[in-house]
Amino acid sequence: HDRHLQHRRETEGEGRLAARRYAGHHDEGAAFHASRVSGSRRRPTFGRLAFAPGGSLRPMPSPTVWLTTLGCSKNQVDSDKITAVLDDAGYVLADDPTTADVVMVNTCGFIEAARRESVETILELSDAKRSDAKLVVMGCMAQRYEQELIAALPEADAVIGLDRYPELLDE
User: Where does the pLDDT of residue 21 fall: very low under 50, low under 70, confident under 90, or very high at 90 and above?
Assistant: First the structure.
């Protein structure tokens, strides 16, 4: 077991190992409402036009999003609603996570196996996404264990609980 942990530390880094440990061992009573978001300054936009360097207006490509949904049918309903909001805001669904501007994971935190699957999926998508793409963790696991996920998953650009979905377009 110790050799296995040492191998994981060497190949995955301490942060990922902590995330995997967290998926199976956590404080059941913890619920926090905080987020860590890598901010960027946006140029002003007008519909599908933006100011280019030099001040001229140019057409903007539509941002792309990949959304992975885990867990129950409620999560699927939430994902469908979020997809509709993103579509209205001009986002286009990406063909796969490697091409998306934003990669989102709608997590499940109901039982230990679901939490483990959520962490594994977050880490897999973190590896698969482009280096300049944003990774957003959301869903019931993000709602219940937001602070712990922020600490354990530095790969996530944002951790957003259910009550904060309207902030998705702001971040």
Answer: very low
